[in-house]
Amino acid sequence: xxxxxxxxxxxxxxxxxxxxxxxxxxxxxxxxxxxxxxxxxxxxxxxxxxxxxxxxxxxxxxxxxxxxxxxxxxxxxxxxxxxxxxxxxxxxxxxxxxxxxxxxxxxxxxxxxxxxxxxxxxxxxxxxxxxxx
Length: 133
Prior knowledge:
By secondary structure, this protein is of the alpha+beta class. It has a single domain (2-132), classed as Ribonuclease H-like superfamily/Ribonuclease H (Nucleotidyltransferase, domain 5), CATH 3.30.420.10. It contains five helices and four strands. It has helices spanning 22-35, 76-89, 96-109, 112-119, 122-132, and strands spanning 2-5, 12-15, 41-45, 62-66. It has a two-stranded antiparallel sheet. Strands 3-4 form a two-stranded parallel ribbon. β1 (2-5) and β2 form a beta hairpin. The N and C termini lie far apart (31 Å).
């Protein structure tokens, strides 16, 4: 599952792919770019190898920002993943399809306001706003 969140508004974009690799990530970037084609998007990334593949073609409206190594606390979506994992830890899924369904239910249960409150720490939104000015 690939996902992006806008920490100030709680807007989110999630898509499931079969692998965490540069080919699937490229498809994700293309879908994201098309969905948010009217705006310039700053996308914060960790240093995953598929995020830095030389084969990636970054869409014109997507600018990557790479965070320092070993600093997940700087990435807004990591806070949301913590909440998702906590909610799923109480579920007992015996198949991958059951887990997918539970994950979809958890994601659908979050309002934009809830996502913003989880991901929009002051230091993150301040840093993002200063990067865009």
